[in-house]
């Protein structure tokens, strides 16, 4: 019986395993998880951070280039002019010869015909200060009639105006020591203009404002800070003029820096002269334009006026400046008075050291204010 029970037990078949269904059993968690959506905010922040890093790299590269590369290029552009300046000392170059050598260095300035670059004076960007010259102007419209010296004063008079003051303190003081009667015309907003003006004024030197005015070649050639432009409205022009006068305290007169375009504009000159008349300032026309309206405006406003007779240092070498100085003396001997304009160059200083002592008893150097007059 036992065997039958065992056999019976063996004969029983096991129940098949139950298949798992997808149905959830109450109270139990399933093993699957919901897929999470990507965090768009974090992705956007990463993009912004990447752009910021890229911009920072670009700015760093630009700053390094400005510090190391651009100054090197400026030095390269400056060296040829320096070499020429050194060879000028004691050279016997023909008048204007070395100027032609300097000009190619500054080709990026545009058309600088009738412009001469200064070897010694440079603005903040290290470019040479330019001044306009029209050496062969016909002076007939404002030519002086011969005025024989009076019995009391038989000696002809000359005024020597040194333009472009404000960039070199040492040479300005050296020029003053040559003769206190030299007249110094100071550029507004120049680096050392106020300092030099104060020093010279304290010593009794006569000061003028070297007023920047628009040249024909503007904007390729720029007259510098404080310039009066033909595009300015009357209010803007007069406001700028007042600022320029305020920048150089103690001036007794004005002459133009560049201005070949603006001085030919009668309306602008009339506007300028309203302020000069009100402040009792005289005007000396540097004569950078053959069509300057300076004389006509001065006559209209009864403003004390004169014009330049000779540019002394268009070429910066001693032989040339000596020849120009001789022209100035000859002109004074013929007309009784003459006005020369020079610049604070070493060659000009050295020439005046030689020539001024020769004038004793023959020619008197006077401040520019003594040679201006009200035109009839």
Summarize the structure.
By secondary structure, this protein is an alpha/beta fold.
CATH homology group of the largest domain = Glycoside hydrolase/deacetylase
CATH topology-level fold name of the largest domain: TIM Barrel
Q: How large a portion of the residues is in β-strands, by DSSP E?
A: 15-25%
Question: Gyration radius, to the nearest Å?
Answer: 40 Å
Number of domains: 2
Description:
Strand 4, helix 5 (about 195-200) and strand 5 (about 205-215) form a beta-alpha-beta unit. Helix 4 (about 170-180) packs parallel to helix 10 (about 345-355), helix 6 (about 235-245) packs across helix 7 (about 265-280) and helix 9 crosses helix 10. The chain is about 40% helix and about 15% strand. It has about 375 residues and is α/β, with parallel strands linked by helices. It has 10 helices and 12 strands. It has helices spanning about 1-10, 40-90, 95-100, 170-180, 195-200, 235-245, 265-280, 295-300, 320-335, 345-355, and strands at about 115-120, 130, 155-165, 185, 205-215, 255-260, 280-285, 305, 310, 335-340, 365, 375. The strands form 2 sheets. Strands 3, 4, 5, 6, 7, 8, 9, 10, 11 and 12 form a 10-stranded mixed beta sheet that branches. A two-stranded antiparallel ribbon has the order 1-2. The protein has 2 domains: about 50-120, no CATH class; about 145-375, Glycoside hydrolase/deacetylase (TIM Barrel), CATH 3.20.20. Residues about 1-15, about 20-35, about 70-115 and about 135-145 have low confidence and may be disordered.
């Amino acid at each position: 019986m036992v065997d039958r029970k065992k056999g019976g037990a063996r004969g029983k078949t096991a129940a098949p395993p139950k298949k798992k269904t997808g149905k959830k059993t109450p109270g139990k968690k399933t093993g699957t998880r919901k897929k999470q959506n990507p965090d768009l905010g974090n992705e956007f922040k990463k993009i912004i951070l990447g752009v910021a890093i890229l911009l920072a790299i670009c700015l760093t590269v630009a700053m390094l280039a400005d510090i190391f590369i651009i100054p090197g290029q400026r030095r390269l552009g400056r060296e040829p002019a320096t070499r020429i300046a050194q060879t000028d000392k004691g050279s016997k170059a023909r008048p204007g010869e070395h100027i032609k050598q300097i000009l190619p260095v500054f080709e990026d300035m545009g058309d600088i015909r009738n412009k001469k670059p200064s070897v010694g004076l440079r603005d903040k960007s290290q470019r040479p200060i330019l001044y306009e010259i029209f050496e062969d102007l016909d002076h007939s419209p404002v030519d002086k009639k011969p005025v024989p010296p009076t019995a009391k004063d038989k000696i002809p008079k000359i005024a020597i105006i040194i333009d472009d003051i404000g960039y070199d303190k040492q040479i300005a003081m050296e020029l003053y020591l040559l003769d206190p009667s030299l007249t110094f015309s100071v550029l507004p907003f120049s680096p050392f203009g106020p300092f030099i003006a104060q020093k010279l004024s304290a010593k009794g030197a006569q000061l003028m404002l070297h007023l920047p005015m628009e040249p024909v070649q503007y904007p390729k050639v720029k007259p510098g800070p404080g310039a009066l432009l033909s595009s300015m409205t009357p209010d803007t022009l007069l406001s700028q003029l007042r600022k320029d006068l305020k920048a150089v305290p103690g001036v007794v007169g004005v002459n133009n820096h560049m201005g070949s375009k603006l001085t030919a504009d009668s309306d602008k000159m009339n506007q300028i002269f309203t302020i000069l008349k009100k402040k009792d300032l005289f005007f000396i026309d540097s004569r950078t334009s053959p069509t300057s309206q300076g004389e006509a405006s001065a006559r209209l406003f009864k403003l004390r006026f004169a014009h330049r007779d000779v540019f002394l240092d268009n070429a910066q070498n001693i032989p040339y400046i000596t020849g120009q100085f001789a022209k100035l003396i000859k002109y004074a001997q013929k007309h009784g008075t003459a006005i020369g304009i020079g610049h604070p160059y070493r060659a000009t200083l050295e020439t005046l050291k030689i020539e001024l002592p020769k004038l004793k008893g023959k020619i008197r150097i006077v401040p520019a204010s003594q040679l201006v007059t009200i035109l009839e």
